[in-house]
Protein 1
Amino acid sequence: MPPRILHLDIDGFLASVEQILDPALKGRPVAVGSGVVASRSYEAKARGVETAMSMLEARRRCPELVVRDGDAQVVERFRQRVAEVLGDFVPVVEVCSLDDMYGDLRGLVELRQPRGAVELAERIRSAVRQVTGLSVSQGIGSSRTLARMATCHAKPGGILEVPVGEEMNFLDSHAVEDLPGVGRRSAELLHALRLHKVSDLRRVERELLRQTFGKRGEDLFWRARGFDAGLGAEPREPEVAATVPSQSISRETSFEASDCRDFLFGMLAYLLDRAATELRGRELLAKRVSLRLRFVDGMSREQQRSLTQASDRTDELQELARSLCLRLLDERRVLVRLLGVSLGTLLPRVGAQGELFAAEEERRGGLFAALDRVRGRHGFGKLVLGNANELLGRLPNGDQGFRLRTPSLSK
């Protein structure tokens, strides 16, 4: 059976989440972002609003545009749920970015039937809609390249399969800039060489592409033939790599430039609290804490330090992160516009060596476990710990926590 890859893209993801959370926004033009449009609804797109457009220009084109900041934690939960639904239908799921993922269809019984892959995609679309309320577009092909391009044709909410044997006909209907990985600059160079369609590109000799574009030329040669780039003399075999848990847990966000240490320590406490909560949820311990600050002049600074013993306790991790933050702030007395914290060197909690006479430590660990249970039942935002109280009144706070300025920067 030839390889069959499914690509799934969540339509207008961030804006769609806002419309689900607030039904009054259904059918209205919505954009999510701060300064720049990170996501827009299809109603906003119809009025000329595009992603990466300045919010000022978006409002000029669409005066009735509703702008929302977005909520990083809520968005992440929606994405995870979509991935779980896809995983109920296909054996391997690879989450690629904020709003798209691949599924490996090889070996599925459904593919032996006429329209089997499309019918499977229809069931996936229906399940995602039922579980999350989101609309998804799906493309099916013999490679990731073809599946992704098919998804673009299927938007919004549709399904398109590139049949086996029809790959070249499908590709020939596209402009070169429709190939994945061909950005604006590459497209300009190809057009300058009078290469406008994929069929034009496929007639160019491989060596000439390599001499003109370097390694990118090798990729172009194979993508014009429907493959997922090349490795040496051969095209890369289509594959979907199962998404594995990250080897670190990170949280970061940008904000209005500030040198107020109370605010910065409050943001640090909140981001670390979120990271530590995930750490405990995954039954892991962290031995290394890393901190990153980006300043208003564009410079970034990072510090990291290891604990004597791996921990999942928010207070221990917070103490180390605060000391790193103090050091960075003392090094550069410049306004800060982004703060990020990362927990690394992750170890399984089961089997971790404990400390002698650690009864008090165990009681404190039990306290955080109890906090996690309360938050799991009533919402993360119901309990605000330590210095994170400094954010009260500065940022909107709901059941799921503070609404951060740039959810696209918050992982």
Note: The chain is about 40% helix and 20% strand.
Protein 2
Amino acid sequence: MWAMWASLIGCLDVSAGESGDTGFGIPATIPPSEGGTVVTTDGVAWDEVSGPCIGYRTETLIFDSDGSAWAGCGADPGLHFARTPGAWESVAALATFHTYDAQLADNATLYLAGDGVLDNVVAWTGDPGEQADLEPDVLLRFDGTIDGIPLAGGIARTGAGKIVIDSQNGNAYVVSNNDGASFEPAYLDSYQMLDLDVGNGEIFAAGSTIAQPPTVMFPQGDDSYDPLELPGGFVGELFGIAALGADRFIAVGADETAHSGILARCFSGCDQRGSWEVFSLSESNLVGSPDYAGRMMAVCFDSSGTNGIAVGEKFPQGLGGFAIYTRDGGHNWNEAGNPDFPLLSECWAFDDGRFAVAGGAGYLAIGSGLP
């Protein structure tokens, strides 16, 4: 394992080696946001603007092609919209909804998953053109039966109208093959889905539990999933996956035994365990001392699958957060260069080469100048 990892560090120095939702990038003509604090480190500028999640973390962050953004704060209720980064407005219709995931699908529709608390709604759909005046329609409501999901953690829709919604706190998920007109329940033995992403018309998942190997889940023809436990001897979850095609993936998570972030990648034959490489950040110099490696919480790529960023938190958490990025589809990684990052839990990769990172306590920054 170390020999494999060492061969990468030669081209990384600070390197290694996709919640995150992909496919909607900001045109290069849109300027940086106004009113922020610009932090420059080693030629990399981070335009720090206010984020809407003033609690523990940002759970979902997506940008549309016009530069507008949507964000959900998970345990802190509400959905938030910004015409430009930093200018956030709360969506009144979803003031009590705990938003854990969002997708702008290719049918120009916004999909939301989470916890309705007061009304048992776990998924909504709506027109993003309504902006902060969004009046969403109910997509899925928990019906109180053993075959339902009382809380939703993730949602993804394919171009053909297939929708998968995973449970936030169990091994259940639901599938619709008719664009949400009806859903059927399904189960994953002892595994749990923690992130979903669409690649080549299929919905892939990543997850596991704190006591199992990190696992990628491959869709089967009958709406079931085949869990693939990844190699490397790690124990812990994958919190984020980027499906860069039918047979090309980057996933991130944590080895809970060593309190170390892990990065997994596969570029061919990915339904076979031996095709995957899994690396521990504690065995690299990506984030400084090995003790700082912490957890990796999210990974995001632009629509080309070339430029990507992954974010996380150091260990112990009081040390803050970190971000690493790639310019070659995940082969080589470098640290993103802001030593003052707080804990980071979400990201975005723009099609003009910039990146966004977000965490809790109202933190959101857009980075430019990364080589």
Note: The chain has one domain: 2-368.
